[in-house]
Amino acid sequence: MLDIKFIRENSDIVKNACKLKNIALDIDALLSLDKELVSLKTEEQNLLTQKNAITSKIPKATSEERPKLIAESKALDENAKNLKPRSDEIEEKLKGLMYLVPQIPSPKAPLGKDDSDNIEVKKFGTLPKFDFTPLDHVQLLEKHNWADFERIAKVSGSRSYSLKNEMVLVEMAMHRLAMEKLMAKGFNLVSVPAFAREEALFGTGHFPTGRDQAYFVPEHNLYLTGTAEVQINSLHAGEILKEAELPILYAGYSPCFRSEAGSYGRDVRGLVRVHQFMKVEQFVICKNDAAESEKWHQVLLETSEEIVQDLELPYRIVECCTGDMGTGKVRMYDVEAWVPSEQKYRETHSCSALHDWQARRTQTRYRDADNKVQFVHTLNNTAIATPRILVPFLENHQQKDGTIRIPEKLRPYLSGISVLGKA
Q1: What is the mean pLDDT of the segment spanning 10-32?
Q2: Where in the chain is the domain with CATH 3.30.930.10?
């Protein structure tokens, strides 16, 4: 969410941001509603000011003057009340449009319409060369009895999976590796519930446009969330923090749920696009300063790189273009790991800087050194998300005899074993 004053004074900049991010929003219509609301509230305030002025005269008025003053006061009060329904209606419409206003992208962000315009900024690692016919991740899982897809689908529906035996331990080991790394870097490790109230999803910007991606539990008026970012972003909602408390670093561990609406027919095989998964999310709350925000953006990106390197996966980093970065983002990077069976890189991490866009929604602020209250900046990035990362992990580390080589830095979390599976 942007400041309405900024929108009034920089409408051309905001219109351009809508264009760059492919957002069909009529900024002129928004400003027209804003103008009408200001006019109504001004008129309402003037009526109440007149009423208060007349009311203050009543105690000192003569018995002849008092009835007339009382009648005038009531009439002004009634006129003010008559304006409120229209004022409330306009305010609600304006609020709905304000939630759709995009953050202004960084001038450093590449211009483009969709992910085909993203810019590769780094490649790391050597792509595997197999002297045998490699299996894809589903074949490897089934070969070793490490997952079930068909039986669990009968119980839980499509896009479901059940990891089995050693693969359950591998998943847990990956999360343990990521969490210990983040704790060593000063992050506060938190586990959060899988569900949240509607206002928390508005707070991150997942709502109003992303309702079709969320599972709703109507009897409790709660939503299952697709990332711990939702809960963590609202932990300090409405608070005014001290500058000395910043930055606040969180590593949120949670089960995550996404309906994957609109993705039918795409990536339906195996573990790529499932309804439920586990994730550790990095989240930073820092000062309202572009340089400070950029610094933490790089820290988050470097940390996710370290994790992918610990798993010994070849990967690349792409900077997302304006048309692919999302409504609230100032700047965004994706980390993509190599998937041999598809001969392409797939996203495993998404690293975003949002400046004060989320903080304005949650009213999360701090008092700076000059005693001025400011909105914080927020940033987020995946640390590890399973089972998606198991896809490149299994395929890149498979050996000729069908076993899986375990990277050295993951071995301490798997009782020291270096090879998984039977030949």
Answers
A1: 98
A2: 115-420
Q: Would residue 350 show up in a list of annotated catalytic residues for this protein?
A: yes
388 flagged as catalytic: yes
Superfamily of domain 115-420: Bira Bifunctional Protein; Domain 2 (3.30.930.10)
Catalytic residue among 159, 258, 331, 360: 258
211 is catalytic: no
What number is the average pLDDT over the span 230-234?
Answer: 98
Which listed residue (176, 273, 346, 405) is catalytic?
273
Active-site entry in 72, 142, 294, 347: 347
Q: Which of 106, 254, 388, 395 is catalytic?
A: 388
Q: What is the pLDDT at residue 261?
A: 76
Answer yes or no: 258 catalytic: yes
User: Tokens 């910007």 — which residue?
Assistant: 205
Q: Per CATH, is 4-98 categorized as 1.25.40.180?
A: no
Check 350, 360, 365, 395 and give the catalytic one.
Answer: 350
Q: What is the pLDDT of residue 423?
A: 80
Q: Name the CA radius of gyration of the chain, rounded.
A: 27
Tens digits of per-residue pLDDT, 309-340?
A: 999 999 999 999 999 999 999 999 999 999 99
Contact 351, 335 (CB under 8 A): yes
Q: Return mean pLDDT, the chain.
A: 96
Give the contacts of 318 (CB within 8 A, at least 6 positions apart).
118, 119, 120, 121, 333, 334, 336
CATH 1.10.287.40-classified regions of the chain: 4-98
The answer to whether residues 347 and 334 touch, using CB atoms and an 8 Å cutoff, is yes
Residue 229 is among the residues annotated as catalytic for this protein: no
